[in-house]
Specification:
By secondary structure, this protein is α/β, with parallel strands linked by helices. It has two domains: 210 residues, Rossmann fold (3-Layer(aba) Sandwich); 181 residues, 3-Layer(aba) Sandwich (Rossmann fold). 47% of the residues lie in helices and 16% in strands. It is built from 17 helices and 13 strands. It has a seven-stranded parallel β-sheet, with helices on both faces. Strands 10-9-8-11-12-13 form a six-stranded parallel β-sheet, with helices on both faces. Strand 2, helix 3 and strand 3 form a beta-alpha-beta unit. Helix 2 crosses helix 17, helix 4 crosses helix 5 and helix 13 packs across helix 16. The longest helix has 21 residues. The protein is globular.
């Protein structure tokens, strides 16, 4: 008879039908499911749940993951989150009575409410997978205005909870070394270096692989998008909202055109094209040189394979010390050099270590021209090797497995 796998409850306030759920939750759980039996609670947006429920069910069935989706409540602000937390506690308690979980793995802060409670009241092992400085991100992103007394109270409440999560967790996951270093300056009881494991946003290297893409596929997509063989493609992939500095990226493209008149700007994003086109028009960019398209996550590698160079500029706020842009590993896995700014997680350190792009310290016309004139030679095999060393999903799963086996 096979030995029964330990039961683990994994709670995510992000949905599995969200892109992040499919790229940053399910691949890890699928890799770990050989050793542990997962029960997954997630909060799904109604429209995405209707559209992609069957896809997620198939993925979970394949890896023997029991999925317990709940519907995400959007309104009213604050009270909707409280309502979701109540639903989360009710389901988690019900499942624990049936299954007696050994570990409660909580992705980000909202789900950590359950993890802390189960740790203190039921003596469960609690993993705080923090995914960045959530409360500070809400402030830096302009979602919580601290001049508003209500948001000031909410912010202070979550910062107190953050300390408790970090103090009582059996293991803490940080996306970056920069974030880990910052947390160790907070002087939180029982929070030592050994307790914090750094696991960046890893990449499925089986999906993001040039060998998977045929020449006819690329040519067909180029024809669809109107990209000519002589065009130099500057690419951007992902959302352009909140953190990403669209005006500055458009300015960089304008500087690039001075050197490469054949440069095209390709956005691969699910966001509305209107805001991008409006900003590009304001910048005096030729609309015929801008391409905007969207695709499923599985098709992102094909689109990225058209890039000659990629750009992403992120607001270098305090909270971004703990951020790991998913796109960096995906671009590196395809051998695409990146142009990025400093002050965001470990992004610049990784670029320098693997010679995988250009870091711009000052986002000005002079800074862009200096970067474009720098004598940098990109080595595609070296960039891909860097992705394999730093961002491989297999390595991420291995680090999680080490944590699980140590605390189980």
């Amino acid at each position: 008879m096979n030995e029964q796998k330990p039961n683990v409850l994994y709670i995510s306030y992000d949905g599995m039908t969200d892109p992040l759920g499919q790229s940053q939750v399910l691949p890890y759980l699928s890799g770990l499911s050989e050793h542990f039996k997962f029960h997954l609670i997630s909060f799904e947006k109604p429209d995405r749940f209707t559209q992609d429920q069957k896809t997620i069910e198939e993925i979970c069935l394949k890896s023997n993951i029991e999925w317990h989706p709940l519907i995400y409540t959007k309104r009213p602000p604050v009270l909707s989150t409280v309502y979701d937390i109540i639903k989360m506690f009710k389901l988690a308690k019900k499942l624990d009575r049936q299954l007696d979980f050994k570990i409660i793995h909580c992705r980000s802060y909202i789900s950590a409410f359950a993890g802390l409670s189960f740790k203190q009241k039921r003596n469960k092992k609690f993993i705080f997978d923090m995914r960045g400085f959530w409360a500070d991100e809400r402030v830096d992103g302009g979602i919580w205005n601290l001049n508003n007394p209500v948001f000031k109270i909410i912010y202070n409440y979550f910062k107190k909870k953050e300390k408790l999560f970090l103090e009582h967790a059996d293991a803490v996951i940080s996306l970056t070394e920069n974030g880990k270093k910052e947390m160790l300056t907070w002087n939180i009881p029982h929070l030592e270096s050994d307790k914090i494991t750094v696991i960046p946003c890893c990449v499925n290297l089986d999906l993001f692989r040039n060998e998977n893409i045929s020449f006819p596929e690329k040519e067909q997509l180029k024809n669809k998008l109107g990209i000519h063989p002589s065009d130099f493609v500057l690419g951007y992939v992902g959302s352009v909202g909140t953190w990403y500095m669209l005006p500055e990226m458009l300015d960089f493209y304008k500087a690039l055109v001075k050197q490469k008149p054949n440069a095209r700007l390709l956005f691969v994003t699910g966001d509305s094209p209107d805001s991008i086109l409006q900003k590009a028009t304001e910048k005096g960019i030729d609309m015929n040189r801008v391409i905007i398209d969207k695709c499923l996550h599985k098709d992102v590698p094909l689109y990225v394979s058209l890039f000659d160079l990629s750009v992403f500029f992120i607001k270098p706020a305090y909270s971004k010390k703990a951020s790991s842009p998913t796109k960096q590993g995906e671009l590196m896995a395809m051998g695409i050099p990146v142009v990025c700014n400093s002050g965001v997680g470990d992004t610049d350190v990784i670029v320098y270590k693997y010679h995988s792009g250009i870091v711009i310290d000052t986002l000005t016309e002079a800074g862009y021209e200096h970067a474009l004139n720098s004598d940098v030679v990109f080595d595609q095999p070296g960039i891909i090797q860097g992705a394999e060393e730093y961002f491989s999903l297999e390595q991420g799963v291995g680090r999680y497995l080490k944590i699980y086996t140590e605390i189980a």
